[in-house]
C-alpha cells in the first residue's frame, strides 16, 4: 500500500539508481541552463526578436530571472551554458562557454547545422556533465533558453512522427495566426530536410538546435555516471528525447519536473509513459519547473528513509 502515493514512486526510482538504504540526500545540486539562438526565428514564429536570448543570459548573471529565484530557493548551484548564442559573453563564474556556432541556420531553408556540428553538440554536452560530476554533482537539473526554442522542439518531435497539429503551441505569447505560421514552417522544414527518424543525429542536424543537442549529450553522460537528471519543459524534453532515441535506458535516470502549459508537452510525456512531478500551468522555461520539483524529490527521500527506519526499529 503506497500511503505516500507518487512520492513513493519517486523514492523507488531513486533507490533503483542509488541502491542504498538509507537513501543519501543530495550534497551538490546543480541547474544548467543551455542557451542558444535559432535561425528559424527570422520567420516570425516568436513574439520576441533574437537578441532577447543574449539579454536574458546577461540577466541570469545579475540574478534577475525566475530560474535564479528558484535556484536560490532550492539551494541549487546555477550555471548557464553558452551552446550557441549570437553574442560573445565576457567571463562570468556562472558561464560555461561551449559555443558550437552563433545560432543555427533557418531550417525552413535547409539543415539547421552540419552533421559534424550535431556530433559536436553531443560531445560538448557530455563534457559539461562529466566536469560537473567530477566536481561532485549528484543531482542535475536542466533548462533551456533561446528565442525560437519551442519551434525547434516541435520540429524535432515531428521528425520522430508526432502530429504537428497536436504539438504546436505558443511558447511566447503570439496570436493564433502566428501559431498557424509556426506549424506551417515546421511542416516546410520536414518536407525540405527529410530528417531520418531512425537517426537522432540526422534529426538534430536537420531541424535541431545547439542547446538541445548539448542537453542530449549532457543527459547521456549523466546516465553513464548513474546521476539522476531532472527535465524541465517542452524544449528540454526535446533534448531528453534525442538522448532517449540514442539510448532508451536514460529514462531510468530521468525525472520530469513539471507539465508545461505548452500543449505538446503532455503528448510527449504520455508517449513515454511518465508522470510529471508538478502541474502548475507554467511556461516560464529556464529550468524553473524542474528546479521547483527538487523539493518534492527530496521530500520523497526523507519519507523513504523515515519509513525504512521504522521497519528496522
TrEMBL record:
<keyword id="KW-0808">Transferase</keyword>
<dbReference type="GO" id="GO:0009236">
    <property type="term" value="P:cobalamin biosynthetic process"/>
</dbReference>
<dbReference type="InterPro" id="IPR003200">
    <property type="entry name" value="Nict_dMeBzImd_PRibTrfase"/>
</dbReference>
<protein>
    <recommendedName>
        <fullName>Nicotinate-nucleotide--dimethylbenzimidazole phosphoribosyltransferase</fullName>
        <ecNumber>2.4.2.21</ecNumber>
    </recommendedName>
</protein>
<comment type="similarity">
    <text>Belongs to the CobT family.</text>
</comment>
<keyword id="KW-0169">Cobalamin biosynthesis</keyword>
<keyword id="KW-0328">Glycosyltransferase</keyword>
<dbReference type="Pfam" id="PF02277">
    <property type="entry name" value="DBI_PRT"/>
</dbReference>
<dbReference type="GO" id="GO:0008939">
    <property type="term" value="F:nicotinate-nucleotide-dimethylbenzimidazole phosphoribosyltransferase activity"/>
</dbReference>
<dbReference type="InterPro" id="IPR036087">
    <property type="entry name" value="Nict_dMeBzImd_PRibTrfase_sf"/>
</dbReference>
<dbReference type="InterPro" id="IPR023195">
    <property type="entry name" value="Nict_dMeBzImd_PRibTrfase_N"/>
</dbReference>
<comment type="pathway">
    <text>Nucleoside biosynthesis; alpha-ribazole biosynthesis; alpha-ribazole from 5,6-dimethylbenzimidazole: step 1/2.</text>
</comment>
<dbReference type="InterPro" id="IPR017846">
    <property type="entry name" value="Nict_dMeBzImd_PRibTrfase_bact"/>
</dbReference>
Amino acid at each position: 500500500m503506497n500511503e505516500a502515493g507518487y512520492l513513493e514512486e519517486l523514492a523507488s526510482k531513486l533507490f533503483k539508481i542509488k541502491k542504498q538504504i538509507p537513501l543519501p540526500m543530495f550534497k551538490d545540486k546543480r541547474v544548467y541552463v543551455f542557451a542558444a539562438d535559432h535561425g528559424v526565428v527570422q520567420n516570425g514564429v516568436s513574439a520576441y526578436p533574437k537578441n532577447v536570448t543574449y539579454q536574458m543570459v546577461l540577466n541570469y548573471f545579475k540574478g534577475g530571472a525566475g530560474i535564479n529565484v528558484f535556484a536560490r530557493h532550492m539551494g541549487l548551484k546555477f550555471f548557464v551554458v553558452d551552446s550557441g548564442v549570437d553574442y560573445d559573453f565576457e567571463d562570468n563564474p556562472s558561464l560555461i562557454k561551449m559555443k558550437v556556432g552563433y545560432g543555427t541556420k533557418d531550417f525552413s531553408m535547409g539543415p539547421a547545422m552540419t552533421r559534424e556540428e550535431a556530433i559536436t553538440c553531443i560531445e560538448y554536452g557530455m563534457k559539461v556533465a562529466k566536469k560537473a560530476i567530477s566536481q561532485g554533482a549528484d543531482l542535475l537539473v536542466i533548462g533551456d533558453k533561446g528565442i525560437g526554442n519551442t519551434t525547434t522542439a516541435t520540429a524535432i518531435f515531428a521528425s520522430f512522427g508526432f502530429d504537428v497539429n497536436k504539438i504546436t503551441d505558443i511558447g511566447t505569447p503570439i496570436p493564433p495566426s502566428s501559431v498557424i505560421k509556426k506549424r506551417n514552417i515546421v511542416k516546410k522544414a520536414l518536407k525540405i530536410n527529410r530528417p531520418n527518424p531512425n537517426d537522432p543525429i540526422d534529426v538534430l542536424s536537420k531541424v535541431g538546435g545547439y542547446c538541445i543537442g548539448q542537453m542530449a549529450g549532457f543527459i547521456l553522460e549523466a546516465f553513464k555516471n548513474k546521476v539522476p537528471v531532472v527535465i524541465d519543459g517542452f524544449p528540454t524534453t526535446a533534448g531528453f528525447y534525442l538522448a532517449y532515441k540514442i539510448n532508451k535506458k536514460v529514462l531510468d535516470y530521468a525525472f520530469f519536473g513539471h507539465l508545461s502549459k505548452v500543449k505538446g508537452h503532455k503528448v510527449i510525456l504520455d508517449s513515454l509513459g511518465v508522470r510529471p512531478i508538478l502541474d502548475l500551468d507554467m511556461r516560464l522555461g529556464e529550468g524553473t519547473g524542474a528546479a521547483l520539483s527538487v523539493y518534492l524529490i527530496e521530500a520523497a527521500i526523507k519519507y523513504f528513509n523515515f519509513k525504512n527506519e521504522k521497519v528496522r526499529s
